[in-house]
Design brief:
Blueprint lengths: L1 H21 L7 H35 L1
């Protein structure tokens, strides 16, 4: 009986801890949101530059053949 009570108490404490920790998450501020948008824009520009580079290489290979 003591094991069941101990297990139930431990489970209850763990559940309360998880609920408390999930409520502590910070909301993103405007600077963090702007930073994420800049990161996304930079990534898109990088992808476009990479595509342009591949296109230039393909064109250069076509001229040599």
């Amino acid at each position: 009986m003591m094991k069941i009570n101990k297990l139930a108490g431990t489970s209850l404490a763990m559940g309360a801890l998880l609920v408390a920790l999930s409520g502590c998450q910070k909301q993103e501020g405007p600077a963090e949101q702007a930073g994420k948008e800049v990161d996304q824009a930079t990534e898109k520009v990088g992808e476009q530059i990479e595509k342009a580079g591949e296109s230039i290489q393909d064109t250069a290979k076509g001229d040599k053949e």
